[in-house]
Structure formats: structure tokens, C-alpha cells
């Protein structure tokens, strides 16, 4: 793997307010979850060896973001090849909790890092695009399920609800995530701001140049560090299938053609690009985060504090889990059992 490291020091300051963070920009090993986790293990170890305390992976890294997959679907149309393609995709997804989650927790503990991992979660036969959170002691903190899949994603992924919009208060800062175009949802962002997010992770599949503007805006709007992680993929990274439809970033159509160009980036609350974007290769994007910048930024603008207007605008977030089936068992009295 070609590894590009970009590290920014903050005035040589080694105080406890400095947290080194790394974004992993790399491709899934498609249809092979064990090898994908092996790849993650090496990348986490590499980031930790460089002193990082937070490691963030892209959307759907475990299980794979199905770019270009069509699953044989058109309006009113399905086919056998598409069904079998979904079978393979479902097989690559993971249970949460489950053995793969246990393995990732052990990797976080072994490398003494906080870990945010993009994964495809399976709950029965429904899949969810999920971000998993782990602390440096090897504990699985919880998950965020993407609440609104984008476009064709809605044919293959379920919808998350308000019960998995966490922000975790950790020794390195308050940690939360918005996945891909959830970052375009003002009310979702506001929910994270309301929970005090400081390390705003944005696992994504959007490698466009325009995405950089959204990340810059969120960092300044939320007064938080934004860590946007996107896969870098070439055609050769995907399983061969005649029904795949790619939008190549370049005109050539050979195996080296770039299908997802990355663009991972780390931005400070003051709107400064600390590392990235990398549009060239797989690699690690690393920066030192001066947590004091959060207070410096909020002197002028605190979106859910002194710059809010709750007498005019307010947001209500329903955090109750939404279950399709609820069983209510009646209490059976002893006399009811007599014949």
C-alpha cells in the first residue's frame, strides 16, 4: 500500500490538550471481511506507532461501500444475479455485537487508541450503514446507524433511528459521528452540537471537491474538529461484475482507474485545514489537534449556546428506538391455568 503521511505540529506544544488523530484512507477487501480486518489491523498499528490516539476509518470499511453495485434492480425489475450479489454482500456484513466487533475492540486495546470504524451491520437480513466506537481500553462504546441512506442506498440499507445518535465523553474529547450525506442534514448536525461534540467524525463515500466545502462549514459552524474519512479505491479493488456502473474520476477504464478518489481531511474549529485532503492514494492522514481551539472558536460563535435563539428556534430529537414488532405479554394468573 502506498502510504502518505501528513502530520501537523501545533507550535511544538506537547501539553495534554494536544491529541494526535489519524484518518485511514484505504479500500475494503471486497467480499472478504477477515482480510479487511487484517488490513485494518496493520493500519491501526501504523497509526498508533506514529503516536495517534484516535483512528477514524471510512464509511462501510468493514463489509464494503457497494459503489457501482446495482443488485439487478430497476423499477419493477429484479433478477437472480442481483439477488446472489446481495447474498454475498450480506455475508460480508457483521453482527453488532459479534466476533468482528470483539476483534476490533482488542485492536483498539492493543494499540491504545480510540477507534471509529465504518461497517456494514446486519440485523437479521436487513443491513445498516454503521459507525462503531471503541475506547483505548478495548471496550465497545456503541454505534451510530445512518438515519438516512442516500439515493439507491435505500434499496439495500435500513434506516437508523434516534436511539443511535451518540456523543461519547472521553478523555480525548467528546466523540460523535455523522455518516456521509447525514452531514448535509442541518437538524442532524444540530443534534450532535447539542450533545457537545468536539471530535466530529465524518466517515463518507463522497470524494468530491465540493465535499471539502461542507467539511469546512461544519468545523466552523459546530466549533469542532472535523475528521472526514473516505476510501480511496481503484477498479481493481472491486469484484468483477458486468452490471457494475462506475463514474471514474478519470477517462481511462483500466484496472488502475480511480473509482473513489478519497479526499480525506482534518479541519480545526477555526477553519484551518490541518491535514489533507489526499486525492492521490491510499494512506494515513494525521494531525495534532489543539483542543484549546474549541474554546477559541466559540468565543465568537457557539451554535447551541450564546449564538442560538431558543425563544424562536428549537429542535426536539426522538431518541426512542423504533421497533417494527413489539410483544406485550400478559400476566398469567394461577387460576387461569386451571382446567
TrEMBL record:
It comes from the Eukaryota. It holds the Pfam family CN_hydrolase. It catalyses: 3-cyano-L-alanine + 2 H2O = L-aspartate + NH4(+). SUPFAM superfamilies: Carbon-nitrogen hydrolase (SSF56317). It comes from Brassica cretica. This is CN hydrolase domain-containing protein. The active site is at 59 (proton acceptor). InterPro entries: C-N_Hydrolase, C-N_Hydrolase_sf, Nitrilase/CN_hydratase_CS, Nitrilases_CHs. Residues 19-291 form the CN hydrolase domain. Belongs to the carbon-nitrogen hydrolase superfamily. Nitrilase family.
Amino acid at each position: 500500500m502506498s502510504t502518505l503521511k501528513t502530520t501537523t505540529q501545533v507550535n511544538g506544544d506537547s501539553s495534554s490538550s494536544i491529541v494526535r488523530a489519524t484518518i485511514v484512507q484505504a479500500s475494503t477487501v471486497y467480499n472478504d471481511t477477515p482480510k479487511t480486518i487484517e488490513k485494518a489491523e496493520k493500519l491501526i498499528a501504523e497509526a498508533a506507532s506514529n503516536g495517534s490516539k484516535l483512528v477514524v476509518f471510512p464509511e462501510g470499511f468493514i463489509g464494503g461501500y457497494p459503489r457501482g453495485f446495482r443488485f439487478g434492480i430497476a423499477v419493477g425489475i429484479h433478477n437472480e444475479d442481483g439477488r446472489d450479489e446481495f447474498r454475498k454482500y450480506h455475508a460480508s456484513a457483521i453482527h453488532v455485537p459479534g466476533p468482528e466487533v470483539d476483534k476490533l475492540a482488542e485492536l483498539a486495546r492493543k494499540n491504545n487508541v480510540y477507534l471509529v470504524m465504518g461497517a456494514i451491520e446486519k440485523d437479521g437480513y436487513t443491513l445498516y450503514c454503521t459507525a462503531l466506537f471503541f475506547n483505548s481500553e478495548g471496550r465497545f462504546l456503541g454505534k451510530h446507524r445512518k438515519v438516512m441512506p442516500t439515493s439507491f442506498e435505500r434499496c439495500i440499507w435500513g434506516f437508523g433511528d434516534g436511539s443511535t445518535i451518540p456523543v461519547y465523553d472521553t478523555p480525548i474529547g467528546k466523540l460523535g459521528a455523522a455518516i456521509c450525506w447525514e452531514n448535509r442534514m442541518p437538524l442532524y448536525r444540530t443534534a450532535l452540537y447539542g450533545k457537545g461534540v468536539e471530535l466530529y467524525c465524518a466517515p463518507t463515500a463522497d470524494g468530491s471537491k465540493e465535499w471539502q466545502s461542507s467539511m469546512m462549514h461544519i468545523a466552523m459552524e459546530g466549533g469542532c474538529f472535523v475528521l472526514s474519512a473516505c476510501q480511496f479505491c481503484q477498479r481493481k479493488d472491486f469484484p468483477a461484475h458486468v452490471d457494475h456502473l462506475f463514474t471514474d474520476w478519470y477517462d481511462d477504464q483500466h484496472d488502475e482507474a480511480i473509482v473513489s478518489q478519497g479526499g480525506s481531511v482534518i479541519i480545526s474549529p477555526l477553519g484551518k485545514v490541518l491535514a489533507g485532503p489526499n486525492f492521490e492514494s491510499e494512506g494515513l492522514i494525521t494531525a495534532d489537534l489543539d483542543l484549546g481551539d474549541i474554546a477559541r472558536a466559540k468565543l465568537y460563535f457557539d451554535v447551541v449556546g450564546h449564538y442560538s435563539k431558543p425563544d424562536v428556534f428549537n429542535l426536539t430529537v426522538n431518541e426512542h428506538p423504533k421497533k417494527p414488532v413489539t410483544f406485550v405479554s400478559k400476566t398469567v394468573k394461577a387460576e387461569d391455568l386451571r382446567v
